[in-house]
């Protein structure tokens, strides 16, 4: 602050070869520009991790600039093309969390564009000064003048009553047991991963069947909602080429994603597909993820048992909730997410349940540097939720495992669904559909849209 004038703190992450040289040219040319920007020089925009932006806001920055070479001029050939894709998605994630888009600026500045750099800094400083300080610290809700926290009330989706097709489930269970027995007796597989009765009435748990006489433990009903793909890589490592996995259509998408990421090969697992009728929640309604499912019949399984029941036409309750959040002002979205995320226990059940959270060492376990505060408080919870959503961008298949595992009931699926919508619109990509396709954030097109970049 200078008197009554707010002076914003702005972090600028810039390419060493173009923007940093352009900033140097602005200085040697004696071009005046605001002194609010602190420059952090990196080799390339492709090396500017979105985590840097999160860290800047976490540590009190009021605005952020990301800048590098113009497309086609990258000293590392394609770094800025990859960066353009990353930030197409990441800026939408931050906006969905409630950070005003005007606080994050992307610009191409060449080594010869000293004046453009000076103008950029002046414009960004003026914009952020006009916005004022961030209305709340990282991970803290916005508190009104009366000391209260205004939390928007979202209209919950209307529940759809689940009608269990008992006869179909019974027939599929018998056929599943016969298929498992055949695979085990023939020696084709050493273990069949499926569903069995849980310890509580109506509950289901994963079972690992290794003997033909144990196949009677396998079941199939409206409570088989767990995504068993989370066990695939571990079991394949223990039984190479000898694993069979019971999958729904949405589970199969996870398997495709793991194959794309070279966690194992397609021939390493036998997929037993189950025609799905949707899954029921604890209250006897269709699970929200199932209401608009378009993959109830597995596409890559060696065999599909039973005919699926199509999802109800014209319903997408999860997308309706995302639309409600999109319609809110940034401050309202910020308060919504802060009041949700504050319940996080940092138990990492979401990570444990997610098949695509498959890193050998999770970022939360890294301490040099420590990207995510370890405390289960506002800043730590927000950073964890944002980073996890970002790491699943273009990868999450919407299976809902994270939401089901969360003991605090945080609607994590909304973050993932929003990012999936952005990826679909920007790159026409849906994860898990094609094992030969390159995930969208590992590739680029020279004509990718860049309307948000100056």
Question: Could you characterize the architecture of this molecule?
Answer:
The chain is built from 13 helices and 9 strands. Helices cover 35% and strands 11% of the residues. The chain has helices spanning 19-28, 50-58, 79-97, 114-131, 166-185, 232-238, 249-260, 317-326, 330-341, 349-353, 378-391, 401-405, 412-427; strands at residues 10-15, 37-42, 63-68, 104-108, 191-197, 204-209, 243-247, 269-274, 303-305. It is elongated and about 85 Å long. The relative contact order is 0.13. The longest helix has 20 residues, at 166-185. The chain folds into 3 domains: 10-131, Rossmann fold (3-Layer(aba) Sandwich), CATH 3.40.50.960; 166-305, no CATH class; 317-442, no CATH class. The strands form 2 sheets. A 5-stranded mixed sheet has the order 6-5-7-8-9, sandwiched between helices. With 454 residues, it is α/β, with parallel strands linked by helices.
Strand/helix succession: EHEHEHEHHEEHEHEEHHHHHH
Distance between the termini: 28 Å
Number of domains: 3
- Please compute the radius of gyration using only Cα atoms: 25 Å
Poorly predicted sequence stretches spanning 5 or more consecutive residues: none
- Shape field: elongated
How many beta-strand elements?
9
